Amino acid sequence: MLLALALFAQSTALPASTAEAARICSAIELRSMETPNVTDLGRAFHFNLLAARETRGNGRMLDNLLAEQALVTPHVVGKTDDLALRADCRTRFPQAWATSATLPQDAFDRALLCSSATMIIASLAGTVEDAAEKRRWEAVSDRLAALPLLENDEARRRGITSADMMNDKADALLRQTLDTSWMLPVAEACEAAYPG
């Protein structure tokens, strides 16, 4: 009996690999949705970013997201003990349940992070049925996207002279947020920091 319980506990534990554990947690968030919503989609996206950060090394996380989604899909189909594993996800990745986020003090970094985070959340909101949520994040994303970041003298002072270099900087800022929070609280903090 004790051996059976030990084997059950072992079978429902998250793997040691951060990338593989994050993929399972992403799948659990997707399976838990009764209807698509920004919160569950945003948390699943956070786990995809974590996995991408682990597997891409210094490469851009966002460039690897399609490949990560393909690796999450088998877990969505193959159901496991979601309740036990979701508790493990909360323990292993507490930042994915954070309710707030601290934005960078640096004005340029803050604007660039907010432009990226709100674009991500607006993209996720575009897949849900809640029309008000879609309008909300589309408006916030459009407001942040209008900031003239690449034409900014501050960008040139930092040696950022192309869209590709700007994307590298945005990716670096997104990486830094993954250890303390996730995209929805970041986007909400940005919404408050850049009111319409």
Task: Describe this entry's structure for a reader.
This protein is mainly alpha-helical and 196 residues long. 68% of the residues lie in helices and 0% in strands. Mean pLDDT is 83; it is low at 1-10.
Which features does this protein show?
mainly alpha; single chain; globular; 2 domains
Shape descriptor: globular
Question: Major sheet, described briefly?
Answer: none
Total of DSSP H or I helical runs spanning 4+ residues? 10
Mean pLDDT: 83
Count of extended strands: 0
Structural category: mainly alpha
Distance between the termini: 61 Å
How much helicity do the residues have?
55-70%
Nearest-angstrom radius of gyration? 18 Å
Binned strand content: under 5%
Low-pLDDT segments, ≥5 res: 1-10
The run of helices and strands is: HHHHHHHHHH
Can you tell me the number of structural domains?
A: 2
